[in-house]
Fold this protein.
Amino acid sequence: MTHQHSSVSAAGLLKKVIALPFSVAGYLAFEPVTTGLLLYGLTKAPSQIRDQLLRPLQGSGLPLDRLVTPLKYLFAIGIARRIHHVLDRLALNYWHIKRHGEPWRFGDEKLSELILITGGCSGFGALMTKGFAGKARVVVVDVSELPEDLAKLPGVYYYKCNITDASEVASVAATIRQNHGNPSVLINNAGLGIGATVLESSVQRVEKIFATNLVSHFVLIKEFLPAMLEARKGHIVTMGSIASFLSMPGIVHYCCTKTAVNYLNDGLRSELLTRYRNGHTICMTSVHPTFHDTPMIKSFRSGSNRSGFAIYPAEGTTNRVVEHVLQGKSGKLYIPESYYWVSFLKMLPTWFTDVLTGHLKQSLTGERRDS
């Protein structure tokens, strides 16, 4: 098993090295600063500068307009992308340039904000707990016991709780409020997933996955959002996935829950925008990492590799989340950021996604994994 894992890791590293030049080229091609400077150099700059730029192409017989026309298109696309990102960030923050509500207080484990993290004893949750320690007060809610290394951190408190039991959540929430006050940041991180097909999954297992990954979000939001609205300060972070936008064989139940929490995040944002008093003071963030090295990924590691997705260090996700929460603003985080394009897959035709994910190739070549 160890040899197989090291072989997979080496293959993944080689794939990243090979892909790096293409990633850099793709970034530069759609970066309007790059294309804009090239356009200026080829069309408006003094002749000696144009000659320097065109020197590598001398003797090729390539007309200047063959370079300028594609650059114009790339420049226009780059500008459109920039405008899109600016408008998207503005919309996610309720169309306010400056956040409304009470100011955030971070930087002290005794006096600053209270952050509640579900599933904080392992995986992403444990790493986020470490990241916030010393910068805020952190309450870890988990059905598992708190690891010793987390218990030693300053300003970290632990409450054992089965978040799929609404009455238990209500009881633990009352204790947290009594001991620490109301959380101003809720990170719905706890998740459950298994690598199994629809027919291999028992109804009880599917119900548990939905209760953990989806229903608990509703329960916890209803428990803590009212106090956030009253305080005119709050942040709800939804740990989604790249699976929010792409359903994959072997983890269909997991994909369903991640699609649903993405809609919950967006739907609650729309209610905060239009229905609730002080709604504009509540930040909403959804996080969409691709496959990262956490305990959960071990249950469907082979399935993710067959889909062509690399497995990344978990710290890449948690560091982004911690940094984003400390900035005190809403957002949608795609991790790594280059996977932003996956959010558009739902708008593409089925045949295209089959080609992109390799499902078509598996179907034509018979590379099926039979149950």
